[in-house]
Amino acid sequence: MFKIEILGGVGEYGRNCFYIENQGKAILLDCGVMKNSQKTPPAITLNHVEKLKAVFISHSHIDHVGALPLLEEMGYKGPVLMSHKTSQQLQHPISHIRTFHPDSRGTWIKVNDYLAFQWGYSGHLIGSVWYKIRFFEKVIFFSGDYVRDSYLLKASLPVEDGTIYDVAFIDSGHIEKNIDNHEVLRKLETYVNEHPNNAFIFPSSFSGKTVDIVTYLAQRTSRAICIDTKLQSLFKQYEEEPENIWPHRMTLQVGHKECTGDGHTLYFVREQDEARLEELAKEHPTAIFIETGYSRPSFNQHVSMQPSQEFFYKTHPDYQDTISLSQSIHARQTIYFHSPHTHLETTIQKEEVNNG
Ligand SMILES: [Zn+2]
Ligand SMILES: [Zn+2]
């Protein structure tokens, strides 16, 4: 019997975890927790773990890997598959990791007699991937977190070979929006250039978005750019895996560890580092905060008084991207995840785009 159970991540933003059972054996697609203070885990039970033969991990964000330690505690000892780069980004050590390298992309990789997969880049974070999985006679597509138009990171899809997927899991994280990332970058460049006498503060995440924005601006402004040391490791990874990057979009060398900014500098600070954000706000009262995603409510008063401007940059598919993904992946059943705006019953009319 073929059975799918959503353990988290559909109809909500976080704890992505999808359980698929076939002929008494099972696989898991991602194993994340909610990004709340309780770190709410997915609804995994011992019954699930007993049948589990492999776990496929799309990338290193906690809403995709945060419950792997729980899975181990529950006794899972099978392989945990992920890209080599993803394994380097994990914050907690995990046993039984099985990694794959850039040169294997697009080829079938065998896990055991009834399980094999292909992978490709998904454009969301360096090393983030999609999977095409053959599980007995069933074929499954899992987009992972997907960005179609990252400035630097490649995003591909499986080679079109007539495959009809039995089920496709498609990221719909920004389905309520319509955004062209390249246009956002152009507008941001203009805005920065129109304010030569202000510093800029970018609360930044550990994601492809941050490297896209830094690189794009660095190539177009002579102003100083200061990047948090904790974000700098991300830049180093781009040098290590050029296969993941669109050709001719060279990344910059972030070698300078200390950065002495001034009143015109562009500061990239980890969004969780409220102390540093506040310090910079005090230092540069006319600095403009740039919000590139959903702004967090927990900002303290000093920071929230500061002038700010939104340049929303996608880290997930928007409405058009979600439709075009679901059109490209021919599937009997499509499950949209990573959004409170989609749920298990969501269907998207495949003709919608053609009709206007
Ligand atoms: Zn992510
Ligand atoms: Zn995610």
From TrEMBL:
User: What one GO molecular function would you report for this record?
Assistant: RNA endonuclease activity
This protein's source sits in the domain of life called: Bacteria
InterPro entries per record: MBL (IPR050698), Metallo-B-lactamas (IPR001279), RibonucZ/Hydroxyglut_hydro (IPR036866)
Gene3D superfamilies hit by this protein:
3.40.50.10890, Ribonuclease Z/Hydroxyacylglutathione hydrolase-like
Regions crossing the membrane: none
Q: Which residues form the Metallo-beta-lactamase domain?
A: 14-195
Known SUPFAM superfamilies for this protein?
Metallo-hydrolase/oxidoreductase
Pfam families xrefs? Lactamase_B (PF00753)
Q: How is this protein named in the record?
A: Metallo-beta-lactamase superfamily protein
| Native source species | Lysinibacillus fusiformis
